[in-house]
Amino acid sequence: MNETKNSGSAGRLRALAENLTRVFTNQGCTIKHELGEVTIEIPTEHLIDVATRLRDEPDFRFEQLTDACGVDYSEYGRSEWTTGEASFTGFGRGVESAADSEPENDRRFAVVYHLLSISHNMRLRMRVFVDSAQPIVESVTPIWKSAEWYEREAFDLFGILFGGHQDLRRILTDYGFVGHPFRKDFPLEGHVEMRYDNEKSRVVYEPVSIEPRTLVPKVIRSDNRYLGDANQQQDPADA
């Protein structure tokens, strides 16, 4: 039963990928069908047209936008926290950091959208890369109203602008906040800190007092599996 269901789902996704390739390749879109998911990468200038057709055309019918978020790919594929060659237990830096290199100017920031087709019971991921110097893309709120708050969040946390958005204000950070905290170059300790001043009877902002530090915990675990070996290696004089 489950095998039949899974094969049917895989068939629908394969058909979706083929339809997307047939319809949108001539607009510079790239379609990927991997790990049981389908992703369409859209050039910025074609976003509104492609998104509208994904919502309206009978073969797609993606009526709902369930999520949209920003992504900063500046450290993608070269993070020192890559653990493919590391131990599966504990904390550690398993590989050496790759040589520093700036990402391509149009490949650092992206907006990722997740769509749901109720009609066809399918999901689709859309991705649009934006210029890192001027990260701006057209708002999809005229197509999916639910994008309004998601786009405000991407603006707040990543600094990505959405042309045509009716109310592009910060949504999570405080009034007057400087910077975009989900960018990879934003300091972990932030730029300012706030506290309540009893004398002034208000909240005051001051330069952050936390010293920059590497947050790598050192964990020493006591494991009964190795106590026997430790006792055997212990110097008899110390027993």
Topology:
Layout: H1 2-24, E1 30-34, E2 37-41, H2 47-56, E3 64-72, E4 109-117, E5 122-130, E6 136-138, H3 147-158, E7 161-163, E8 192-197, E9 202-207, H4 227-233
Parallel strand pairs: 2-5, 6-7
Antiparallel strand pairs: 1-2, 3-4, 4-5, 8-9
Describe the protein.
The chain has four helices and nine strands; from the N terminus they run H-E-E-H-E-E-E-E-H-E-E-E-H. By secondary structure, it is an alpha/beta fold. The chain has one domain (2-177): 2-Layer Sandwich (Beta Polymerase, domain 2). The strands form three sheets. It has a five-stranded mixed beta sheet. It has a two-stranded parallel ribbon with strand order 6-7. Strand 6 (136-138), helix 3 (147-158) and strand 7 form a beta-alpha-beta unit. The radius of gyration is 25 Å and the shape is globular. The model is unreliable at 90-100 (pLDDT under 50).
Number of E strands: 9
Number of individual domains? 1
Q: Can you tell me the CATH topology?
A: Beta Polymerase, domain 2
Percent helix, as a range, is: 10-25%
**Main beta sheet: strand number and arrangement?**
5 strands, mixed
Structural class: alpha/beta
**Cross-sheet strand order for the largest sheet:** 1-2-5-4-3
Distance from first to last alpha carbon:
62 Å
Rg on CA atoms, Å: 25 Å
Q: Which regions are unreliable across 5 or more consecutive residues at pLDDT < 50?
A: 90-100
Strand content: 15-25%
Task: Tell me which CATH architecture applies here.
Answer: 2-Layer Sandwich
Q: Look at the structure and give the mean pLDDT.
A: 81
Q: What series of H and E elements makes up the topology?
A: HEEHEEEEHEEEH
Number of helical segments with 4 or more residues? 4
Q: Which CATH first-tier class would you pick?
A: Alpha Beta
- State the shape: globular
